[in-house]
Design brief:
This protein is an alpha+beta fold. It has helices at residues 2-29, 35-43, 57-67, 78-89, 124-128, 146-150, 175-179, 204-210, 220-224, 254-258; strands at residues 99-103, 156-159, 162-165, 185-189, 195-196, 235-238, 241-244, 264-265. The protein contains ten helices and eight strands.
């Protein structure tokens, strides 16, 4: 009987000592974390899309509190998110203009063709390594959906061989643009202004052969544009490809009307 009692006492003593050690260790090794980090993380949408430039919402929240990171980097959260974070941080801030992804390519199956039948791994990144991809246009969308697979909001789908943005779902996080091997996706302010929906930098003849709606650098859009400053016009052609300065553009659409191939239009995400 004494042996059992002794064992119980020893076990109890060990338990008490272990508990004391754990309490002391917890006190000594405790790392303080600003409670605002959790509060800021609670303001974020939890998409972990990486559009802010951080690994996820938690990392972004920590950067805001500990490093003073910009409060307006969460595109999915929008203005409400910025206002909530600003309240937690005790500062004033406002979100910039909403942004959306735009696919600068109209190379649908009816507008362009293929050079060969691609049978490899069905990703854009893999196809791009095979002679630039199977499409006639070496600069166009490959249509294998790498952008759609990384979009955390289901805002991209491939239609007739070209990626298409679903405007009401897009948050402008930029995940799609980062994975596109052809760089045909651009994140722009969600404004109703025309864009050159082409990425082809070949000369006009080569572009026309590759795609019916590719920019042929004819300069008609430049001549039609009524907006001109001392240094430049709202529309210009450089490297065989037209471009539109969104800051100067007034959305008059005269450039689009003058384009003989239909390479200029309001982005297809609208």
């Amino acid at each position: 009987m004494n042996g059992i009692l002794t064992t119980v006492i020893i076990v109890a003593a060990i338990g008490i000592i272990a508990s004391v050690v754990l309490v002391v260790a917890a006190k000594v090794m405790y790392v303080y974390e600003d409670e605002r980090i959790g509060l800021v993380a609670g303001c974020l949408p939890g998409a972990n899309c990486g559009g802010c430039g951080y690994a996820g919402c938690s990392d972004y929240a920590k950067a805001i509190v500990e490093k003073g990171a910009d409060l307006t980097k969460c595109a999915p959260g929008g203005a409400d998110c910025v206002a909530a974070i600003a309240k937690v941080m005790g500062v004033s801030a406002s979100a910039g203009a909403a942004k959306k992804a735009v696919v600068k390519c109209q190379g649908h199956t009816c507008n362009t063709g293929t050079k060969f039948d691609y049978q490899g791994v069905t990703t854009c990144s893999a196809a791009a390594k095979m002679f630039g991809g199977p499409g006639d246009c070496a600069y166009g969308c490959l249509g294998l959906g790498d952008c759609a697979s990384v979009c955390p909001f289901g805002a991209i789908q491939v239609v007739d061989g070209v990626a298409r943005v679903i405007n009401e779902k897009c948050t402008g996080c930029g995940a799609c643009a980062k994975v596109c091997p052809k760089f045909v996706i651009e994140i722009v302010e969600d404004d109703v202004k025309p864009m050159v929906l082409c990425n082809n930098k070949d000369n006009g003849k080569a572009t026309r052969t590759a795609c019916k709606v590719g920019c042929i650098a004819c300069n008609r859009c430049v001549k039609a544009c009524p907006i001109e400053t001392a240094k430049s016009k709202a529309v210009s052609v450089d490297g065989n490809l037209a471009s539109i300065d969104a800051d100067l553009c007034i959305g008059c659409m005269q450039c689009a009307e003058a384009c003989p191939v239909g390479a200029i239009d309001v982005p297809n995400c609208r």
